[in-house]
Specification:
With 120 residues, the protein is mostly beta strands. It contains no helices and 11 strands.
């Protein structure tokens, strides 16, 4: 099995910065894509940033220039650096990971979510 452990999150003032991390562990053969999504009540979960095994990142316009995703392949860990935070960034942030387990099964798993609140 593969597990994700998220850390970071919390309360920050508008204009502030926050960092999230997500570490994957378990029976990982290949890690393809790791990503951060966020969700607010009543809305669909949306992509915040993703990175694949080749180091290619995908960051939507809504957070481009403010959010940065990085990846430590050796540790199967991704980091999300969030700068210039706005109130509309308030959400539960979820880590997602896709890849292959050592038994060649595909995994597509989610973390438990971490709350980010941007408020004065």
């Amino acid at each position: 099995q593969v597990q994700l452990v998220e850390s970071g999150g919390g309360l920050v003032q508008p204009g502030g910065a926050l960092s999230l991390s997500c570490a994957a562990s378990g029976t990982i053969l290949v890690m393809h894509v790791m990503a951060w999504y966020r969700q607010v009540p009543g809305k669909q979960r949306e992509l915040v940033a993703s990175t694949n095994a080749g180091g290619i990142t995908d960051i939507p316009d809504s957070v481009k220039g403010r959010f940065t995703i990085s990846r430590d392949d050796a540790q199967n860990t991704i980091y999300l650096q969030m700068n210039s935070l706005k109130s509309e960034d308030t959400a539960v942030y979820y880590c997602n990971a896709k890849g292959y387990e050592t038994n060649y099964d595909i995994f597509d798993i989610w973390g438990q979510g971490t709350l980010v609140t941007v408020s004065s």
